[in-house]
């Protein structure tokens, strides 16, 4: 019988010599496609106190025995060049007497199978990040395309392209397979973890990010954020100002109360609306720093010439 440490020193190959180990962590089902059929795989962390081993299980029925805390004897497996194990329909699994594992292996197993999401970066930083780096992003869905069936390595798959925007930039996100089924919709503010940064290519004119097997999509309340705006136009609806603004990457409209507009124009809060309009007509266009949430300017101040040109 191999120990896991001994197995990790072997050459990549199928093996029949058994390994006794304990299951420390199990992933959720991860979809994949083979020969035109949709299937599921699982990632598992195993240990016997000599080392930690990652196994990929392609036979769903094996998961009836592979439970966190179970001690197993495994044979007829494939040891791969990346020092992991693959279990298929021909693999054999037997329950056996319990072994106690050092807690340090449990911590490492959790990190291996349930990796913590990388920190969220603003989208401007993501676009200039080194390619193939793993990161997390958040923003408002400003465009949501229908999922498309594409061929990847001669296998059919589904991809859904969405566009996110935060206060710094907009970026395209390619959601593959399971991620494409997310209920997140146009207008939602989402946080998307474990995405990989990609260079522009034939199908993407700018750098973009793509989901991975570990991607999680969470709809969240839109946070208030500071933005640099240039106010270029306005209209009024029921004493609320609707301001047309440009940013570094888009043209958008935001609502603002008469009181906040008076404040940015250095007018008394008691000013009548006709006075506000007269001053606004003279000042537009002008640059301002605004605290924005959803489509509303909570408050803003005019930038000085130094601020607006820096």
Descriptive key words:
single chain; nine-stranded mixed beta sheet; five-stranded mixed β-barrel; 6 helices; elongated; disordered C terminus; NA-bd_OB-fold; Replication protein A OB domain-containing protein
Descriptive notes:
With 310 residues, the chain is mainly beta. It contains 6 helices and 21 strands. A hairpin with a 5-residue loop joins β7 (77-79) and β8. The longest helix is centred in the middle third of the chain and has 11 residues, at 103-113. It is elongated.
Topology:
Blueprint: H1 4-7, E1 13-15, E2 19-26, E3 30-34, E4 37-47, E5 52-57, E6 71-75, E7 77-79, E8 85-87, E9 92-95, H2 103-113, H3 123-127, E10 134-144, E11 148-152, E12 155-165, E13 170-176, E14 189-198, E15 208-211, E16 217-220, E17 225-237, E18 240-246, E19 251-257, H4 258-264, H5 273-283, E20 286-293, E21 296-302, H6 305-309
Parallel strand pairs: 5-8, 13-15
Antiparallel strand pairs: 1-7, 2-4, 2-6, 3-4, 4-5, 6-9, 7-8, 10-12, 10-14, 11-12, 12-13, 14-15, 14-16, 17-18, 17-20, 18-19, 20-21
């Amino acid at each position: 019988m191999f120990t896991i440490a001994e197995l990790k020193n072997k050459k990549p190959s199928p093996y029949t010599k058994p390994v006794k180990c304990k299951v420390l962590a199990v992933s959720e089902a991860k979809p994949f496609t083979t020969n035109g059929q949709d299937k599921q795989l699982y990632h598992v962390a195993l240990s016997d106190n000599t080392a930690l081993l990652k196994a990929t299980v392609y036979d769903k029925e094996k998961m009836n025995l592979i439970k966190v805390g179970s001690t197993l004897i495994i044979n007829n497996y494939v040891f791969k060049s990346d020092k992991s194990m693959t279990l298929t329909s021909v693999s054999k699994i037997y329950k056996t007497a319990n072994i106690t594992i050092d807690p340090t292996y449990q911590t490492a197993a959790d990190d291996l199978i349930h990796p913590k999401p990388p920190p969220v970066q603003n989208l401007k930083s993501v676009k200039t990040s080194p390619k193939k780096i793993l990161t997390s992003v958040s923003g408002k869905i400003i465009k949501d395309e229908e999922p498309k069936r594409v061929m990847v390595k001669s296998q059919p798959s589904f991809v859904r392209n969405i566009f996110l925007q935060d206060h710094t930039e907009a970026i395209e996100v390619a959601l593959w397979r399971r991620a494409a089924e997310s209920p997140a919709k146009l207008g939602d503010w989402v946080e998307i973890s474990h995405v990989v940064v990609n260079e522009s290519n034939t199908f993407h004119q700018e750098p973009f990010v793509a989901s991975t097997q570990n991607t999680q999509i969470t709809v969240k309340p839109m946070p208030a954020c500071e933005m640099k705006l240039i106010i270029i136009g306005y209209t009024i609806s029921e004493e609320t100002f609707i301001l047309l603004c440009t940013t570094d990457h888009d043209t958008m409209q935001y609502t603002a109360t008469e009181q906040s507009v008076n404040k940015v124009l250095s007018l008394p809060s008691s000013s009548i609306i006709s006075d506000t309009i007269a001053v606004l007509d003279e000042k537009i266009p002008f640059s301002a720093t605004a605290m924005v949430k959803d489509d509303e300017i909570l408050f803003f101040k005019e930038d000085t010439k130094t601020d607006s040109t820096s």
